[in-house]
Amino acid sequence: MLLKLERGFDKFANIIGGFTAIVLVLMILNVFYDAIMRYLFNTGDIAMQEMEWHLFSVVILFGVSYTLKEDGHVRVDLIYDRLKPKKKAIINMIGVITFIFPITLLVIFSSIGFAQEAYEFNEISGDPGGLTHRWIIKAMIPISFSLLIITSVGFFIRNLNIYLGLHEYEDHSIIHEAQKYKEEITKKTGDK
Predict the structure, then answer these.
(1) Nearby residues of 8 by Cβ (< 8 Å), 6 or more positions away
(2) pLDDT per residue over 32-80, tens digit each?
(3) Where exactly are the transmembrane stretches of this chain (predicted)?
(4) What is the DSSP letter of 166?
(5) Shortest CA distance to 111 belongs to which of 56, 155, 148?
(6) Which residues, in sequence order, are CB contacts of 153 under 8 Å at separation 6+?
(7) CA-closest candidate to residue 151, choices 3, 9, 2, 4
């Protein structure tokens, strides 16, 4: 039951990751277009320039949820890397409950009014020719942190499954990744 639930949360996080990847490609295309127009044709569009940081914001805000699912967030912890998988799972579960949930809920509830106010006042860019509907990008803050709550539940369940021994811990540390890479290279060069 817990493994099936974990797979469901992982699929949800993969959808967020796919959406984030699409937005990233759109951002790259936008930057490319803006650079071509500015440097080759000496023209520019304020709205397209503002769209760059709007899209960048969406990539960062939504990418956090997918990064948590992939356990790709940055850790600077010499002790954590040396612990057994069950102890790592306990630390991760405690971290979700004591840090991720409270901070995420705080951001959600404090940013809803921020987005609502932008919507009610029909906030637009202060620059002439800039983007309208500023509330859309401000609404991404509570939406993305709500998605982070959901993926945090999935992360908690994954670590609970590891603690219960229902599946193995996947080590994503730099040391482990370097070791895997070294083994792959050795295997390829040894086959020749």
Answers:
(1) 154
(2) 998 888 888 888 788 888 888 899 999 999 999 998 888 777 766 777 7
(3) 12-33, 53-68, 89-115, 135-157
(4) S
(5) 148
(6) 9
(7) 9
